[in-house]
Amino acid sequence: MSEALHRIAVLGAGAWGTALASVLARRGHDVQLWGRDQKTVDTINTRGENPRYLPDINLPEGLAATRDIARALEGAQTVLLATPAQTIPEMAGLLAGKISPSTPLILCAKGIDRKSGKLPAQILAERFEGQSLAALSGPSFAHDVARDLPTAVTLAHTDGKKAAQLAAIISSETFRVYAATDLKGVELGGALKNVIAVGVGVCRGMGLGASAEAALTARGFAEVSRLATHLGAKPQTLMGLSGLGDLVLTCSGTQSRNFTYGLALGEDRGVAGLALAEGAFTAGVAATIAAENNIEAPLISTVAKLVDGAITPGEALRELLARPLRSESEE
Predict the structure, then answer these.
(1) Half-sphere exposure of 227 (CA within 13 A, CB side)
(2) Per-residue pLDDT at 10
(3) CATH number for the segment(s) 7-181
(4) What is the DSSP letter of 309?
(5) Helix H or strand E segment including 208
(6) In this structure, which topology does domain 187-321 adopt according to CATH?
(7) Residues of CATH 3.40.50.720 domain(s) within the chain?
(8) What is the pLDDT of residue 3?
């Protein structure tokens, strides 16, 4: 594998999948974008747009979309899986028999499967023995990436050489990809920061002020670090783009689906009809994992109860403020 142009399949024609496909097409790769919705596929092919997910953005010429997953995967030298984290088991079924173990499969969703408590790479490793697996994560809004604005992310593969090769293939002048080997750390950082972003969104919705939002972000990062390192992540990974960097961006405002979901909860509005928020699905399973491992994670636990409707935002605030004072360094 080299930096030469490749045939690449991107599975998932939502905002993130379309943005990644755009990066690769601009780079000159032969890109096939797979999506479920026929109207979206047709609009991409005929008008060079994806108005449902990326309105007012012109996609690069040559980006082709299809609903035929076998066609998308045919001859693909690299595959990016950009469907939501909760669809990974289903996607594994669709991929069966259509992908070689030597073909790199790059996971681009950020979440933990709420039924099994497993990360995407773990689910696929169990389903496809010997499959070359990587994860792409970092501070990156789909609209920014699709507009070709400067972005930096991390790509992790347990084989450092393969990580570097894949990073070189995907990187462009504006989309900078750093290679890493901490696959679990990159996945956990991306999944857990979404839960914290929901909490910060609630804080904004309740009008608690910027100081409270900063405190929640910082204390949330402490929880992410405790839980992720206990599960095998490297601390330096969590301090990087796929951990702290992504957390800061996701907690920054309404471009973040997770922040927007929390904002609606904090304003006591309904969440029906909002864009998919991975953190809402991950919160419960993350809280369960923390409890089972005796990891102190009060914010994650509180967000899980909020998402489930077990407590109100006001009750959540009182619960967090009633916690006993302690040293900041204490777990």
Answers:
(1) 32
(2) 98
(3) 3.40.50.720
(4) T
(5) none
(6) N-(1-d-carboxylethyl)-l-norvaline Dehydrogenase; domain 2 (1.10.1040)
(7) 7-181
(8) 57
Residue 117 parent element (H or E): none
Q: Are 212 and 203 in contact (CB under 8 A)?
A: yes
Structural contact between residues 280 and 261, judged by C-beta atoms closer than 8 angstroms: yes
Question: Where do the CATH 1.10.1040.10 domains begin and end in the chain?
Answer: 187-321
- In contact, 17 and 11? CB cutoff 8 Å: yes
Structure tokens at 42: 């047709």
CB 247 within 8 A of CB 223: no
193 given a catalytic annotation: yes
Residue among 195, 194, 182 nearest 229 (CA) = 182
DSSP 194-209: HHHHHHHHHHHHTT--
pLDDT at 2 over 60: no
- 208 half-sphere exposure, CB direction, 13 A CA radius: 23
Q: Backbone phi, then psi, for 207, in 5-degree steps?
A: 70, 35
Query: How far apart (Å, rounded) are the C-alpha atoms in residues 175 and 153?
Result: 8
Amino acid identity for residue 2 in this structure = S
pLDDT above 60 for 1:
no
Dist CA 159 CA 178 (whole Å): 14
Out of 110, 162, 184, 193, which one is annotated catalytic?
A: 193
> Which run of H or of E encompasses 34?
strand 30-34
Report the distance separating Cα 106 and Cα 116, nearest Å: 21
The answer to whether residues 106 and 78 touch, using CB atoms and an 8 Å cutoff, is yes
Tell me how far CA of residue 3 lies from CA of 7, 30, 116, in angstroms. 12, 13, 37
Instruction: Say how many residues make up the chain.
Output: 331
**pLDDT tens string 275-295:** 889 999 999 999 999 999 999
Scan for tokens 């992720």, then name that residue.
228
